[in-house]
From TrEMBL:
Entry keyword annotation includes Oxidoreductase: yes
Function text: Probable FAD-dependent oxidoreductase; involved in the cellular oxidative stress response. Required for normal sarcomere structure and muscle fiber integrity.
Name of this protein: Pyridine nucleotide-disulfide oxidoreductase domain-containing protein 1
Domain NADH-rubredoxin oxidoreductase C-terminal: 377-443
A molecular function (GO) term: oxidoreductase activity
Family membership: Belongs to the class-I pyridine nucleotide-disulfide oxidoreductase family. PYROXD1 subfamily.
Pfam families: Pyr_redox_2 (PF07992), Rubredoxin_C (PF18267)
Boundaries of every FAD/NAD(P)-binding domain copy: 10-145, 264-348
InterPro entries noted in UniProt: FAD-bd_OxRdtase, FAD/NAD-bd_sf, FAD/NAD-binding_dom, FAD/NAD-linked_Rdtase_dimer_sf, Rubredoxin_C
Keyword vocabulary terms for this entry: FAD, Flavoprotein, Oxidoreductase
Naturally occurring in which organism (per UniProt): Stegastes partitus
Reported cofactor(s): FAD
Primary gene name: pyroxd1
Entry superkingdom: Eukaryota
Amino acid sequence: MAAKKEKTFKFVIVGGGIAGVTCVEQLTSQIPSADVALITAGHHIKAVTNYKQLTVIHSAVKSLHTETHSLETADGRVFGYEKLCICSGGRPKLLTQDNPYVLGIRDTDSAQEFQKLLSKAKRIVVVGNGGIALELVYEVEGCEVIWAVKDKAIGNTFFDAGAAQFLIPSLEADKPEVAAPCKRTRYTTEEPAPGASQTFTAEPGSALGPDWHEGIALRGAQQVSRRVSVEYQCEVEKIFTSEELLNSPQQTLRPESAGSWPVYVQLTNGKTFGCDLVVSATGVVPNAEPFLHGNTFAVAGDGGLRVDDHMMTSEPDVYAAGDVCTACWELSSLWQQMRLWTQARQMGWYAGRCMAAHVLSEPIELDFCFELFSHITKFFNYKVVLLGKFNGQGLGSDHELLVRCTKGREYVKVVLSGGRMVGAVLIGETDLEETFENLILNQMDLTPYGEELLNPDVDIEDYFD
Ligand SMILES: Cc1cc2nc3c(=O)[nH]c(=O)nc-3n(C[C@H](O)[C@H](O)[C@H](O)COP(=O)(O)OP(=O)(O)OC[C@H]3O[C@@H](n4cnc5c(N)ncnc54)[C@H](O)[C@@H]3O)c2cc1C
Ligand SMILES: NC(=O)C1=CN([C@@H]2O[C@H](COP(=O)(O)OP(=O)(O)OC[C@H]3O[C@@H](n4cnc5c(N)ncnc54)[C@H](OP(=O)(O)O)[C@@H]3O)[C@@H](O)[C@H]2O)C=CC1
């Protein structure tokens, strides 16, 4: 690299999302005198990073040179590092690039863009069957929603068909006046400090995370409340603009409909829908590219930087955490990676601890939070808790399920393998999460209890205390 290093920091963290900020917090608490730089492309950083030794640089990293331990930012500056942690997150894996009618939702800017376009929309098509789609189809009002999913049931990334069936009536009912309470710490974003170095580009900001739609009106241009039609087992065949459609020789639409919408989505089930906007809620791609060129990072099949049980990539002194990385250590049989806020925070925290431990030559073991998968969220105004191998992931036919369901109130599913609990899905106010978490962790043989385990007349909490 020709340019001279402006400064060499002990620690450099790239990315001001939850993973990067937690990593900084952990490093500065472990080694308060450490010289730390946070380099981030977005306008905002998550939460407060109020440490004297912290230098915040608002610019995107353009290239990384692991041999010289340096990186170059979009505004042409070069910084050196002793240890680096890449927390550059992910971006939406869009159905198609550069189509103004196809939108992904990731950060504040894209959510505002969606809100603006929605306010003029009468019909939108939502494609995808994961977290964003589940939240959107429930929250959007004043607009018809066509929801196209690949699977036989809704919410494939979180649920099985039973849970989906439990949830579906909520899409048809009116929303309750009072939303289920949120008992989680809320994070806010911080404006850049006055005078802080920054270049505003079209760079991605941090992912929105839990509760992102609270306080944002997701309202379309119609007088209807919620109206969702689900198109099952189909994918997008083609997306046309109105003009393309009118000029197309094989017109598949009814003539009266052609030309009345700005964009049309042809699905593999043979149906074509005109709409004002297509939301591509089709997953995330790790933001690893700026770091790859000229280096020899090991990259996982999903495009993430492979990390070991110390959050280290294959390049010396380079760590990674959050959505950009792929956990490639020998995983616990009860944990799997999902690109979630909680995991990004746990990884950032643990990466910070590992970096500090390595500098201080202290031993460090894989954190306990990677023992058991747990995720608490809210879908369709129900509290949802997912534990361990909640969908029998990787168990093949070697598992049995116990299910208890009360329509409109709760859905409880337990996954057992060899008589031991290995996962659970809890929807509604079940109060079972703590007991089940313990039963999964202690791997007690539950064979003697059989179906009694879910007997609503047995106070299971007392039973296993
Ligand atoms: C709409 C939405 C709702 C969600 N809801 C939930 C939820 O309810 N529960 C849950 O658990 N998870 C949820 N998630 C997922 C969760 O938000 C993410 O998994 C998590 O925030 C990822 O954090 P991160 O720090 O790894 O990445 P990000 O938040 O993406 O942060 C990456 C940071 O890196 C910066 N950056 C990127 N490239 C560069 C570069 N080249 N140079 C410098 N900086 C760079 C970005 O500006 C950003 O600051 C949601 C995600 C979305 C999009
Ligand atoms: N409450 C929560 O916990 C929330 C979490 N999130 C997180 O934010 C991130 C982004 O959310 P989201 O975009 O919904 O990602 P998800 O990974 O949750 O879901 C993506 C969905 O899109 C499907 N899909 C992928 N490609 C296509 C395609 N070409 N055509 C049709 N469907 C496709 C996937 O199916 P398949 O799985 O078969 O590939 C999957 O159903 C995720 O990491 C998610 O976990 C987001 C919102 C809320």
